[in-house]
Design a protein that fits this description.
By secondary structure, the chain is of the alpha+beta class. The protein has six helices and six strands.
Length: 148
């Protein structure tokens, strides 16, 4: 998988994108994705390309969205959820996307940039164990997943 996506994890809306920053800077796209108007009005605070990381982090931190990028067999997911309810919604959206686009041999890296938690796993491990995705608060558990 090489595609990129923006997903609103509250509504389930999913948009395939080539470049996350350029797509999102179009106010129509940001509105369709569900970025709050007060956040969209602040987009001008960030210089395109130069402030890419700060801009994307700002949006992730202020809207119920997750950023997805495929890198061949690796898929990266980034979101910012301060509470377990929002994190659970984001993980459910990730699971739904994986059911549609991930192969059994895909590797997933999921990062909640608010908590700093990152999980890496082969998607087949999730399938075979019939487990739902949950980022751990206790990093001592094997492979970053636990049953829910």
């Amino acid at each position: 998988m090489k595609e990129g996506f923006w997903i609103n994890y509250q509504t389930g809306e999913r948009f395939e994108v080539f470049d996350h920053e350029n797509w999102l800077r179009d106010e129509r796209n940001a509105t369709r994705l569900g970025v709050p108007p007060e956040i969209v009005t602040r987009f001008g605070d960030f210089t395109p390309a130069n402030d890419r990381v700060r801009f994307l982090t700002f949006v992730l931190s202020n809207a119920p969205v997750l950023r997805v990028r495929g890198h061949g067999v690796d898929i990266t997911f980034e979101f910012a959820a301060a509470d377990t309810a929002a994190e659970s919604k984001a993980l459910e959206a990730i699971h739904r996307l994986c059911e549609d686009v991930a192969g059994a041999q895909s590797w997933m890296q999921i990062s909640n940039i608010t908590t700093g938690k990152t999980m890496k796993s082969a998607y087949i491990d999730v399938i075979q164990r019939e487990r739902r995705l949950v980022i751990l608060t206790d990093s001592s558990e094997e492979d970053g997943l636990r049953e829910k």
